[in-house]
Write a structure and sequence with these properties.
The chain is built from four helices and 19 strands. By secondary structure, the chain is α+β, with helices and mostly antiparallel strands.
Length: 318
């Protein structure tokens, strides 16, 4: 091969390599395998930090309340691990709550943890004008990470703009709103079966900010070592607000008083009695008695033999 032909081939190869490199450069910033960049950015949009605890930024950060009523400030943290959640009032930098404990002499403030939704709620009762301002939900990382909620206090409800008739209707509905646990004030369940308690919130104009279950006046922990505990809540668009508590393989320790506590009604209670199946108990008693009789029957010949041997020995000696 002469030099002109070799130079021509090298030149063509150089052009081909440049074209391939140009195509790779143009397509290098594109997502492949059906994963557009916009979708990935949207998926990770709520993350304020690339790793560690992150706040649910879809929760409201501007809340309005009315003087004399109750306000709820909600905070949810993803990937919390063992970090502690605190609520701080910015007006005086006062620590109001740490975890599930309230650290203020003002009884209007209360820390509420909703294990169903993993929400840390700051409840403020009997609102006053001085309660307005910024509140901080803080995670005990190093350095700390914060989620801010502004509370606005109104002198009267917006419904008053629509006339006294609508006010009377709202107040009337709030008076009759109540919760009840289906099945009555007493529930009997067999040991080893599943306990099913359903709490229904009736005549409520709006969905409760939270709904908690209690056993013997203590919040039920769905992640406790006992296991076998779950809660099923009604959908947001459901006409009836319900919450169903399921406890599998109930035992004696699961008996006692259960309470359903929505944020906007009084507490509903019922008493659970764990009973044992009488048929199973009778079979167990019969088996135990039969086993005892079997032991006695097998021991009787041996006892008679021992008596006979003793009599013969006595006769020989005599």
């Amino acid at each position: 091969m002469n030099n002109p032909e070799a130079l021509k081939i090298c030149f063509l190869l150089l052009i081909l390599e440049c074209m391939v490199g140009f195509c790779d450069y143009r397509s290098g910033n594109k997502k492949r395998h059906g994963q557009p960049e916009e979708e990935e950015e949207k998926k990770l949009g709520f993350r304020l930090w690339s790793s560690g605890p992150n706040f649910d930024t879809d929760l409201p950060q501007d809340v309005s309340g009315v003087v004399g009523q109750t306000a709820y400030l909600t905070c949810r943290v993803f990937d919390r691990t063992n970090k502690t959640i605190s609520w701080i009032r910015h007006a005086d930098l006062h620590i109001l709550t740490v975890g599930r404990y309230t650290y203020t002499a003002d009884n209007r403030y209360q820390s509420i943890y909703n294990p169903t939704t993993d929400e840390w709620i700051l409840q403020i009762k009997y609102l006053q004008k001085r309660d307005s301002g910024m509140y901080e939900c803080q995670v005990s990382t190093q350095p700390v990470r914060s989620f801010f909620v502004r509370l606005n206090i109104l002198d009267e409800t917006p419904s008053k703009l629509y006339g006294e008739e609508s006010i009377f209707t709202v107040q009337n509905e709030e008076e009759v709103a109540h919760a009840e646990i289906t099945g009555g004030t007493e529930v009997h369940v067999e040991q080893g079966s599943t306990l099913n308690l359903t709490c229904v919130v009736k005549n409520s104009k709006e969905k409760p900010h939270y709904l908690l279950w209690y056993h013997k006046n203590e919040t039920i922990d769905y992640t406790s070592p006992r296991g076998g505990i779950s809660v099923v809540n009604s959908e947001n668009n459901s006409p009836e607000i319900t919450s169903t508590l399921l406890i599998y393989q109930v035992g004696d320790s699961d008996s006692g008083k259960y309470s359903c506590r929505p944020s906007n009604t009084d507490v509903a209670t019922t008493t659970v009695y764990v009973i044992r199946d009488e048929h199973q108990q009778n079979l167990k008693s019969i088996n135990n008695n039969a086993h005892k009789n079997k032991i006695s029957s097998s021991f009787l010949p041996f006892l008679v033999l021992q008596v006979l041997v003793g009599v013969l020995e006595w006769c020989v000696e005599w």
